[in-house]
Automatic annotation (TrEMBL):
SUPFAM superfamilies: FMN-dependent nitroreductase-like (SSF55469)
Name of this chain's protein: Nitroreductase domain-containing protein
Species whose genome carries this gene: Blautia obeum
Source taxonomy: Bacteria, Bacillati, Bacillota, Clostridia, Lachnospirales
Keyword terms of this UniProt record: Flavoprotein, FMN, Oxidoreductase
Superkingdom to which the source organism belongs: Bacteria
Molecular function terms, GO-annotated: oxidoreductase activity
Annotated signal sequence range: none
Ranges of residues in domain Nitroreductase: 158-300
Pfam families in the cross-refs: Nitroreductase
Length: 321
């Protein structure tokens, strides 16, 4: 009888797990945007922000390539056209920011003697007024002492994703100190079910980056690459299907802040890979079965003058119930 009870409980847990993952999959399938097709305001906000961000990235490259990003610009303008056709608000912050990015794209290309008349024509036909929140920021990096004396608010606002680095290697001791600091990330029952793979071998680094979509034009400047992983062995089978990604995500933010604290320039890179890409990365870095990918971080040292995407933040969204 006892054995039967145990088996039943095991089957129940397995069923719950299946239901939970199936339910999430259905919800994701239903709600996530698909390509440039948008069926609600939030999807438009995401798709437009995503495309204008790629243009901001191009504007921030030190070796600016005039006329870059034609396809992305085309997707951006098409989505903005559809947004207006669907009757959404031209005064929405992200829409105005997107207009601002496109204007800056036109201006920057003109500085390089390249005209983009089709884009100019299309943006003229869009309603709305550009704000001044799109484009890039330029700054001189603070030194380590200055960084470490900032208050929390200034410290957080002073961190930026860097996509250009000096050729000086990252001091391994500093990196170790940053990883030690990031260990203070809170986690469910303090289990700390994460770890970092530090890719120091340049050949492996280059191979891994071939399987990541967002590092084109700057990945070759990384001194090292981190892959943050969560370890499924640390999580409870009956309820914690998503907990590895929650704890892992919190760890990822802590690592970014800790790198910043130790004056290591960094850019987070998505580890949402295709099946094939993930297979390659798993093989290249000898990940074990229990490890799931959370995020990559490209690191290096700051150049003398930094420029990066402005990546303006919208006002916080919250509701009180
Ligand atoms: C999970 C995650 C994935 C990201 N992936 C990429 C990427 O693949 N390529 C890239 O250049 N930036 C990537 N970023 C950096 C974002 O573009 C950046 O964090 C955002 O624009 C905010 O800018 P900030 O980091 O300078 O504040 C990623 C950030 C996160 C958190």
């Amino acid at each position: 009888m006892k054995i039967l009870g145990k088996i039943k409980r095991k089957l129940d847990v397995k069923k719950q797990l299946n239901n939970k993952s199936k339910e999430y999959e259905n919800r994701f399938d239903e709600c996530a945007f698909k390509g440039n097709k948008c069926s609600n305001f939030e999807q438009y906000e995401a798709v437009i922000t995503r495309w204008y961000h790629t243009i901001e990235k191009g504007l921030a490259y030190v070796n600016f390539r005039a006329g870059f990003g034609k396809n992305n610009m085309d997707s951006l303008l098409e989505t903005m056209d559809n947004y207006i056709k669907d009757g959404y608000d031209e005064n929405a912050f992200f829409f105005q920011t997107s207009l601002s990015v496109i204007q800056k794209y036109i201006r920057k290309n003109a500085e390089f003697g390249v005209k983009v008349p089709t884009i100019e024509d299309r943006i003229k036909r869009l309603p709305g007024v550009a704000n001044n929140y799109g484009g890039i920021i330029k700054f001189e990096p603070l030194d380590e002492k200055e960084l470490q004396s900032l208050n929390y608010k200034d410290f957080i606002c002073n961190r930026h994703s860097m996509r250009h680095f000096s050729s000086e290697p990252v001091d391994m001791e500093k990196l170790k100190a940053a990883l030690k600091l990031a260990q203070y990330t809170p986690s469910a029952c303090n289990r700390q079910g994460w770890s970092a793979v530090v890719v120091n071998d340049k050949k492996i680094l280059a191979e891994v980056l071939k399987n990541q979509n967002g590092n084109e034009g700057f990945g070759q400047e990384f001194d090292k690459l981190l892959l943050l992983v969560a370890d499924l062995s640390f999580f409870n089978h009956d309820r914690e299907l998503f907990q590895p990604y929650i704890d892992g995500g919190m760890y990822a933010q802590s690592v970014l802040n800790a790198l910043h604290f130790y004056h290591i320039a960094a850019v987070p890179l998505s580890a949402s890979l295709t099946e094939q890409q993930e297979k390659h990365v798993r093989r290249l870095l000898s990940l074990n079965e229990a490890e799931v990918l959370i995020m990559f971080i490209g690191i290096g040292n700051y150049p003398d003058i930094c420029q990066t995407t402005r990546s303006e933040r919208r006002t916080p969204k919250y509701r009180i119930v």
